[in-house]
């Protein structure tokens, strides 16, 4: 195999004229059924998508740019495959549109139709880029633990909790999350924050469980939901919230949030790796 024979650097089938048909919805139901989630969801929440490579032409042909944020409800019937999302956003590049408001409304209409539920869209234009927040997860880092790990597919038997002791409330996080895209096989790198009230979760077991996703194939949203269900079933917290933030790929980052109690939605502040 020489560089000339490889797929590297070869043209892809991109279009720069607006085309909503590029969006490829994927039903959530199949992946949920595989982990025992039925019609009655054990959580609510949202998927926060940030798109950093959005551009279009104004009415006079001058390029415009913005960062788009999409808030997709967790109870929507569908997710959108991320490569199709990227191709769809790229189709705006040589499309003339009268204003940023028209772009936002078009995005909202198309993503709502693909997901099957109302989607909120926010556009940040260059004047607001400097106001975008950066922070790291609050809580106690699991990554401080010095341990051995040898399981690289999700294994809920790694999870245990102190059921015979008083319940606790704590926030834990790890930056060692990795899973793999089921479409391209590419690695998805991420961080995950877990807040719970209930029997104290064994931290070493929880970190090993997070590491066990390393060879797992699943969409970001599906990984977060599998984590939620496994922790809920194995550790039986009264309250549980999981927030995963993945690094961007193709100009997109995806950040699923799931909870079983009322709490403020995350503020979408970017982590350093994003």
From TrEMBL:
Substrate binds at residues 80-82, 220-221. One of its GO terms (cellular component) is cytoplasm. Pfam families: QueF (PF14489), QueF_N (PF14819). Its EC number is 1.7.1.13. GO terms for molecular function: preQ1 synthase activity. It is found in: Cytoplasm. It comes from the Bacteria. Belongs to the GTP cyclohydrolase I family. QueF type 2 subfamily. Catalyzes the NADPH-dependent reduction of 7-cyano-7-deazaguanine (preQ0) to 7-aminomethyl-7-deazaguanine (preQ1). This is NADPH-dependent 7-cyano-7-deazaguanine reductase. It comes from Paraburkholderia dinghuensis.
